[in-house]
Design goal:
59% of the residues lie in helices and 13% in strands. It is an alpha+beta fold.
């Protein structure tokens, strides 16, 4: 018995488990199992009998399986090889299912394993082979309890020795099959510290990469020269015994390994080819395995496509105001395990195609153009953003862009601008015009319709400008520039100046814009629309600059334009509103950012010893986004957050080296470094010398 034989036993068991698991999965994908899995109300006595009979037959045909049961998570029903069907709460082995579910944290999550099976030790004497079905949430489990006596017989047949003294332990080191002369339990960590791989103390050992099981055997006495004559005399007997046991093992493997393989072949519909002898079992095993893998991957792709289709239909219903309650939105997303979409940031971009003036494209041509824009959108999709293209009509497409709340408004707006610029560049050579408009960024899926309505109004303004071109003799660009974009661009520049702290410059530019508005013959409707543009720019700028939701709400509540009727009152209040916004944003730029950085520095001084201290944690304490905090640190301190934190930790380490008799390792831990090596690297980078050299220099200066 040597290490190669231990490894051979492990590999053979892994192969047998894989074959059993594939047979279990084939059963779980049959129609009876599928119906009971996806339909909690389904209850058919004939189907129940077929399932339980199949489980019973499976146990009878496998020498190392003592019993089996199937658990459907939606209906919480258990089907047992003892030919019984009952609810989980009444099932005698329900604790096994509960323990496994709690240990794996399975319910309601999207999850994927690297292999289709695993071994689960409920107790050292109760070990289960488990396969799982996901769609992509967990929907069913099949448990097969291993017969430990059959497992031991299989090992003995493999090594051809009745007293092999091979002990088997699970991944936690608890004994499953413990022979005389070996310990009851082993410590897996102690095996890693062994001086020589495969040898630990007086034992050979091998750890399975698939299951984590540990195989252990005593080394025994080394063979000296005095034993050689005895071996020569007994060699013929040993050879005979070896041949007999080899034949027995071959028959055993043929019965218990190749029969499941042939069963898999039949499941794949290859019986005629098997009988003809054109291919061997290994070829067909590879064929069945590849087919099963491809089917699972295809199922996952289908489920993702279905989830995307559900989200797109939900977005379409929201935009068209066909959803009557937020509860319905939440219920729909919960069913496809995408509930996190409710809390994200959203924006709508509309792309309206303008046909060439000399001809009218047919529907097929317009559909191809729309499809090309959709592909351009998807090409720009990157983490942490999601893009959902939706077709409005034959010549119009919209893209819904979403991201997590942790992404700043300014960053999301910049990403949308990049998308628009990219598509404008790509379509310039296509034979149609393209009008693009984006709505406001809204926080929360339920407010998506507001972003859509604003983008739609923008498109309508631009299309109206195109129709007025012939009547008034103006270009489309001039009409759009005066009607909407001129004002938006001006307000955007004014808020930029305020954000830089240039309050006087921002106020001067605002005075010029207000004078231009008074000179125009705008009615109440046009002034309200201009106010909405200004409100969107101000809101996005305040959120991106870290103004709290409470302060923003209080600011907005002071101004109610819809109650004003007179043109002069609307113009006056708009100017007051924008002046107040400039004061608030510029005050934030000059004072608030210094206060934010001071709060962050204070928090760092109290928590720098925590090696997991992060920008996100400090930002949450201060009350602003991590991206904004990163910008503030660079502006105020001249350093990035990580640079400042490292510099502060090194400064504290220098103080400890001057006044504390601690080792370099102790100092690195107390200053928040995750290792002494990392501490030395950072210290040398900032100070130009290693910590040891610095400490020696301090001691030399003290002696002088």
């Amino acid at each position: 018995m040597n290490l190669q034989q231990l490894e051979g036993i492990s590999d053979e068991l892994d192969l047998i488990y894989s074959l059993f698991a594939e047979e279990m999965l084939q059963s779980m994908h049959s129609s009876d199992y599928i119906v009971m899995t996806i339909n909690p109300q389904y209850n058919d006595s004939t189907s129940n009998m077929r399932v339980t009979e199949g489980l019973s037959s499976f146990c009878e045909n496998q020498s190392i399986i003592s019993n089996a049961f199937f658990y459907a998570t939606f209906s919480e029903m258990v089907y047992s090889s003892s030919r019984t069907v009952m609810e989980l709460n009444a099932f005698p082995r329900r604790d096994v299912i509960h323990r496994y579910m709690e240990q794996e944290d399975l319910p309601g999550i999207y999850y994927q394993r690297e292999k289709s099976w695993r071994l689960f030790s409920y107790t050292p004497t109760q070990v289960y082979l488990i396969t799982e079905m996901t769609t992509p949430v967990l929907v069913s489990l099949m448990f097969c309890q291993l017969d430990l006596q059959g497992l031991q017989d299989l090992i003995l047949a493999r090594v051809n020795l009745p007293d092999s003294e091979i002990s088997v332990y699970n991944e936690e080191g608890n004994g499953i099959l413990v022979q005389a002369g070996t310990p009851e339990n082993v410590n897996p960590m102690s095996l890693q510290s062994a001086d020589e791989e495969g040898m630990f103390g007086d034992y050979y050992y091998f750890v399975s990469e698939e299951t984590g099981w540990i195989f252990l055997k005593p080394m025994g006495n080394m063979m000296g020269s005095a034993q050689v004559p005895f071996l020569i005399r007994t060699l013929p007997l040993i050879l005979v015994v070896y041949i007999l046991f080899s034949i027995a093992a071959a028959l055993y493997i043929s019965r218990n390994v190749y029969r499941p393989i042939r069963y898999l072949m039949k499941m794949a519909g290859s019986t005629s080819a098997i009988d003809s002898g054109n291919q061997n079992e290994i070829d067909y095993l590879n064929l069945v395995w590849s087919r099963s893998h491809e089917e699972r991957e295809a199922q996952k792709r289908i489920m993702k496509e279905v989830s995307d289709d559900v989200v797109k239909q939900l977005l379409r219903d929201l935009i068209e105001n066909r959803l009557d309650s937020n509860a319905r939105i939440e219920d729909t997303l919960n069913k496809i395990d995408m509930l996190e979409l409710i809390q994200g940031n959203y924006i709508v971009i509309i792309f309206s195609m303008v046909p060439p003036s000399d001809r009218t494209p047919n529907s097929v041509e317009m559909a191809l153009y729309s499809r090309s824009i959709e592909q351009m959108l998807l090409r720009k999709e990157e983490a942490p953003y999601r893009i959902y293209p939706l077709t409005l009509r034959e010549n119009a497409l919209l893209g819904v862009i979403s991201c997590d709340r942790s992404v700043s408004i300014a960053r999301m707006g910049s990403y949308c601008d990049d998308i628009i610029a990219f598509i404008q560049t790509q379509v310039k050579d296509l034979p149609f015009g393209l009008i693009i408009s984006k709505g406001r960024i809204c926080q929360g899926l339920v407010y998506l319709t507001y972003s859509y309505q604003e983008a739609l109004r923008d498109i309508q303004y631009q299309l109206q400008g195109s129709s007025e071109q012939e009547n008034e003799g103006k270009t489309t660009e001039e009409i759009i520039y005066r009607a909407r974009y001129y004002f938006r661009e001006k307000i955007h520049r004014i808020m930029n100046e305020a954000g830089k702290g240039n309050r006087s410059e921002a106020e001067a530019q605002l005075a010029l814009v207000c004078d231009e508005i008074r000179q125009q013959d705008y009615g109440r409707k046009e002034l309200l629309e201009l106010h909405e543009i200004a409100e969107n720019e101000v809101t996005e700028r305040m959120i991106s600059r870290g103004v709290s939701s409470k302060e923003l709400g209080q600011f907005m509540d002071k101004y109610d334009f819809k109650e004003l009727e007179e043109k002069e009152d609307l113009e006056k209040q708009m100017e007051e509103y924008l002046l107040a916004a400039i004061r608030l944003i510029s005050r934030d730029s000059r004072k608030r950012r210094y206060a934010h950085v001071e709060d962050a520095q204070s928090y760092i001084s109290e928590h720098y010893q925590n090696p997991d201290l992060s920008l996100q944690e400090v930002s949450e304490y201060v009350g602003i986004t991590s991206s904004y905090m990163s910008v503030l640190f660079a502006e105020v301190t001249g350093k990035r957050f990580s640079e400042y934190l490292s510099s502060y930790r090194v400064s504290m380490a220098k103080e400890k080296m001057k006044h504390a008799d601690l080792s370099i390792t102790q100092i690195s831990v107390e200053c928040g470094f995750n290792s002494a090596q990392n501490f030395s690297r950072v210290f040398k980078k900032l100070e130009g010398s290693s910590p040891i050299q610095y400490r020696e220099g301090v001691k030399n200066r003290e002696k002088e």
